[in-house]
Amino acid sequence: MAKELAFVLINPYTVAKSRTGGVIARYISRTGLDFVAARMFAPNAELAQAYAQLIRTDEEIDPVLRPIMGDYIAREYGPDPGTGRSRRVMMLLFEGEDAIQRVKDVTGPIRPTNSGETVRDTYGDCILDSKGAVYYLEPAVFIGPTPHAAAVALKLWASYSLACGGIVGTAGDVAQGAASEEALVILKPDNFRFASARPGLIIDIFSRSGLRIVGAKIHRMTVAEAEEFYGPVRHVLREKLKVSVAERTAKAIAAELGMEVPETVKAQLGELIGPVYGDNQFYQIVQFMTGRWGEGLREEEKAKPGNLRCLLLVYAGPNAIARIRNILGPTDPSKALPGSVRREFGQDIMVNAAHASDSVDNARREMNIVKVGEETICAWVQAYYP
């Protein structure tokens, strides 16, 4: 069976209620598909109306629900009519065999229910009046339930991806003003070794910050990006490890040759071997983030996308840097508090689930390196629907 490209649009209400993590966890773990792209949108009125019209004219949708769903999109996806400020929508792309049907099964139908079987059962609402007509509707997400519907919708959203997508920090429910900050979070490759709920569960933990997600991107970090991103760490490692390397080297010599190493020689060993060992540790970080050993590679090889994926997220709001890092926990998971991301999901100092910027300046530097706002949806849509 050939691979397909399926999409999920997480509705503004679902995003605003910080249910995004739970939704993502469901789709990754229950479909088993590859999570290949993510992008935040702030749809303009034109996109909202165009997508609403697609739904209203889709003959494969229940004719009773069709106009109700179309009206919902026109009303809830476009800018707020009172303030003119946009709303946040997150698009997810999944690739794999029978992807469209798998996403449809996990999404579930629109129905009045108290169960938690599907995404819409858990995160959506469909309330009927005394005559059995739909009184209130919140579908939680929208999808392309058939190959044709997926193709048409994806082409539409791709055509607006540059105009309406990226980092949507001016959306109506995002705090504005001098006190507001943007913090970069990277869910590291250890969360994507196999299809699991981990990425969504981590996002769910970060939701208690009260911050808003304004940027999202699935990214395969290049070696060149990793070298630049972790460049400040390299100098620290080269200096910090001199003393420990000197001690360990002296012990190894004593064990092998049966002689004590004088303190002056020990210091020289640290100066000589410490930076080399620091570089080795640095490139282990690069390899962990990219899946490639970067030392000695030609520049053109360093510029190629890595073998491993991570999820980039930008959180915005007052004191965002400190709030995110408090929830993340210290680098060493064994020293993190219960309930923190690294205590729950970290393994050791390197394999510690996530990265978060430690200052506003570093957040800007890091976001520029990994290009969080970069458009990635169009390439996937073009590959499947040229």
Could you describe the 3D structure shown?
The protein is α+β, with helices and mostly antiparallel strands. The chain folds into two domains: 3-220 and 310-384, Alpha-Beta Plaits; 226-302, no CATH class. The protein is 46% helix and 17% strand. It is built from 18 helices and ten strands. The protein has helices at residues 12-16, 20-31, 45-56, 65-76, 99-107, 119-123, 147-159, 161-164, 198-206, 223-229, 231-240, 242-257, 263-290, 299-302, 320-328, 341-345, 360-370, 377-384; strands at 3-10, 34-41, 89-97, 125-128, 134-138, 141-143, 180-187, 212-219, 310-318, 354-356. A four-stranded antiparallel β-sheet has the order 2-3-1-6, with helices on both faces. Strands 8-9-7-10 form a four-stranded antiparallel β-sheet, sandwiched between helices. A two-stranded antiparallel sheet has the order 4-5. β4 (125-128) and β5 form a beta hairpin. α12 (242-257) packs across α13. The longest helix is centred in the C-terminal third of the chain and has 28 residues, at 263-290. It is elongated.
